[in-house]
Design goal:
Number of helices: 9
Number of domains: 1
Helix content: 25-40%
Oligomer: single chain
Structural class: alpha/beta
Strand content: 15-25%
Distance between the termini: 39 Å
Bound molecules: S-adenosylmethionine
CATH architecture: 3-Layer(aba) Sandwich
Shape: globular
Largest sheet: 7 strands, mixed
Length: 218
């Protein structure tokens, strides 16, 4: 049997479903420390009224209020999430706010129905999605010319800041199943979309990667 923290480990759907079945009830509290990074990530999407934005691996919907505010009543927010327990919380959020233009689908990104054409895509703390070639291919296929894509989350800190990697390892143990790609989580997506701008965060233990698709498409 492969050790769970094997640096080559690919995403494991069953393990991920179990992980979030256990965490869903406490998740919003656990993420509190990272909320400034979420706000920064959504700001980098430069949302405009009427945009369609995809929130992939949307979890309990913590990004939904910011995304809905960005696209307004005339835009569309689509959340895709594979964990039934996590998306149930997102659904409660949507219902409580009374948003009619926020749609949620329970499915893995890599095998969900085709994604709608998007002006913006958010992948916040969704390392397992970023390490799935099929998911990344679908994301690239959904992008409209000029679309903005932001991926953010944990990464291994540079060698000079090695003590931070204890913190990254604990976070990773709770949050992801693919230990591959933690040195540069954006690599597969960059293979499809081209080079991106990287902003380091949390002393190098987190990152924010962003792309703008050329006017001619991805
Ligand atoms: C750390 S949480 C992040 C949730 C949310 N993006 C946020 O910012 O709070 C990772 C989420 O990705 C979901 N996930 C992991 N792999 C997925 C996949 N292949 N397709 C859809 N959702 C996935 C998990 O179920 C979990 O809810």
């Amino acid at each position: 049997m492969r050790h769970r923290a094997d640096p080559q480990a690919a995403p494991d759907r069953e393990a991920a479903l179990q992980q979030y079945r256990r965490r869903a009830w406490l998740y919003d509290l656990e993420l509190a420390l990272f909320e400034p990074l979420r706000r920064r990530a959504v700001a980098r999407l430069a949302l405009r009224s009427g945009d369609t934005v995809l929130d992939l691996g949307c979890g309990t919907g913590l990004s939904l209020p910011l995304l809905r505010a960005g696209v307004g009543a005339n835009g569309l927010v689509v959340g895709i999430e594979q964990s039934p327990e996590m998306i149930a919380r997102a659904r409660e959020r949507v219902q409580a706010a009374g948003w009619r233009n926020v749609r949620l689908h329970q499915a893995p990104v890599e095998s969900a129905p085709p994604l709608p054409a998007a002006d913006a895509v958010l992948l916040h703390f969704t390392h397992d999605v970023l390490q799935q070639p099929e998911a990344v291919a679908r994301i690239a296929a959904a992008l409209r010319p000029g679309a903005r894509v932001v991926a953010s989350g944990l990464k291994w800190a540079p060698a000079a800041r090695w003590p931070l990697n204890g913190f990254v390892a604990i976070g990773a143990w709770h949050s992801l199943t693919a230990w591959s790609g933690l040195d540069a989580p954006w690599t597969l997506l960059a293979g499809r979309l081209g080079s991106c701008e990287i902003e380091p965060a949390l002393g190098g233990a987190a990152y924010l990667a962003r792309w703008r698709v050329a006017a001619g498409g991805a």
